[in-house]
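Thread: quick sanity check before group meeting

JM: Hey all, I'm pulling together slides for Thursday and realized we never actually wrote out the predicted structure for the chain we discussed last week. Dropping the sequence here so it's in one place. If anyone has concerns about the input, flag it before I start.
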Amino acid sequence: MDTAEFVEFAKASIDFVANYLETLRDRNVLPNVQPGYLSKLLPEEAPQKSEKWQEVLKDVERYIIPGMTHWNSPHFHAYFPTANSYPGIVAEMMSSAFSCIGFSWTSSPVCTELEVLMCNWLCKLLDLPDKFLFTNDGTGGGIIQGSASECTLVCILAAKDYTMRRIKTLNPEMDENTIKSKLVAYTSIQSNCSVEKAASLGSVQIRLLPVDDKHSLLGATLRKAVEEDLAKGLIPCCVIATLGTTGTCGFDKLDEIGPVCEEYDIWLHIDAAYAGAAFLCPEYRYLMSGIEYADSFNVNAHKWLLVNFDASVMWVKDTKRLTDAFSIERIYLPHSNAELPDYRNWQIHLGRRFRSLKLWFVFRIYGQEGLQNHIRQQIKLAKLFEEYVLSDARFEVVTKAFMALVCFRVKGDDSLTKKLFDRLQARKRIYVVASTYQDKYVIRFVICSRLCREDDVAFAWNEISSQATELLQEEHYKTSVENIAKVTDDNVKVSNIANEHNIAPAFLSSEYLHETFAKELSSRHI
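JM (edit): ok, ran it. Output follows.
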């Protein structure tokens, strides 16, 4: 492909992308395909000869789009947001074109220097402690990792190395492997599953601690666990606290947990992947009370800050702990600038993408006010959805709308909420996921897409309430028929009567047909 063809292809692709995003509202958010669908449509081998780009682009609509879950759809209300914006898309395109692999300052100076600046910009936007800023006379700094999972793994590994060195200094006679075998990490039962996975990959024991009735990990709970382990000869190593848990957006008590970590010299990492972005708005900063105790802090710019995936920003108060854990020197990788980081020594892998370009584009084009407006608007839409739920006596809000998340359920047995959830999934018009709260099965509804408007929330509620109506009618009539059948010795089956009257099962929820059905039962003295 030459330059002229590239320009033609790229322009057509931009039109395709713009049209895709503009028409997302008209597509079902979930695909209607079965596992293995694509292998039946595409050849088993790559083509021998080149094909025209026009055919490739045509096949994106023909084969790729049908198998896609539309994460940016205004009808996507599952998990948490995955950000998308036009400035981010353009920056991603340029980053791909530049193709720099910024593992050191020399490998691409701007890749390192812009990342330092963007991490500092975001640190100040969120009003995080100054200890996380990269300065000439400080010890802290930020780095853009791929995901919160990666940040947690990096911090557990760094905490493991730091604790091993600390204990070795205090007890020179102890073997390093013995020390490592005794290390323990702590988190709440509400933390993201990636925390458990990171501890497993890092070969560190992890304790999942209980939470209070607000799904918060308390300082007293942590202290009890730490003292129990110390009595067993174990070595507390790391605590992963969460600000905005996945299930219910719960917040751990940092101002209680922090002093315990400080007392026992335990690394405190804070996972604020989703909710941390809300600290852009001063009215939510009270939620990070106690952050001054943190050794590291993470927020995903690719969740709520309109920066396309992947861009997970992590700050540490002492970058030396990272370089001590991850630095491996080679003659072909000289440290090229003592005043700026070689980010390869702050992470697991060597290569890294030019992610900071996305932050730079988004921060400049939206500005602080634009980002704040985006977050506040999504929180407002979540409140609107909560009002819909509260207005319907058949439902209950299990956790009040917090940030842009509402957890709700159908009143009564869990089976009703499960059946409603299954119906919503089968219809594919909106996408939600389930969770549990105090042993109750709940449905999570999150405002995710930047495209979401009030009419989209109304659309979602109409889908939920109408399916609930059909479900509850069917359950009511099923119960009525069962109750009638219980008080008779007649062996006439409900299905036989339905067949005699040619009543399709799908219509049994109709009040008219139910009355007709009941009269027939009555006439047979059932």
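AS: nice. The longest strand covers residues 235-242. Confidence is low (pLDDT under 50) at residues 505-513.
JM: adding both to the slides.
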